[in-house]
Amino acid sequence: MITADDILRLSVADLQTVAKEVTDEDWSVAIRGMSPELRQHVTNSLGTISQALAVENSQQRIAEVIERLVDAGEVSLAESA
After folding, report:
1. Which of 14, 34, 44, 66 could make an S-S bridge to 38, C-beta 3.0–4.6 Å?
2. How many C-beta atoms lie closer than 10 Å to residue 10's C-beta?
3. Domain spans of the chain?
């Protein structure tokens, strides 16, 4: 069984993968019962994860806007060289 101490062994990238599948509410509840060391590791990682997810979400929204505008014929993409 995975324990709270195992979370300390996860890299930020691995925590990012986990964070995509865990709700903010679950993190909030879980953090309350963590040791100070574990709490710091998770909160530091979640900050990095939140920034990465914000960038990813922003890039996705921009791509969707471009796709919609291309489909509507309002903008066009130049051919690749």
Report:
1. 34
2. 16
3. 4-71
Structure tokens at 18: 């986990």
- pTM comes to 0.55
Distance between CA 47 and CA 16 in Å, rounded?
Answer: 10
| Contacts of range 3-10, beta carbons closer than 8 Å, 24 or more positions apart | 4/33, 4/34, 4/35, 4/38, 5/38, 7/38, 7/41, 7/42, 8/37, 8/38, 8/41, 10/45
Q: What is the pLDDT of residues 53-77, one digit of tens each?
A: 777 888 899 999 999 999 999 999 9
| Paired tokens of 34 | 């963590």
Helix (H) or strand (E) holding 80: none
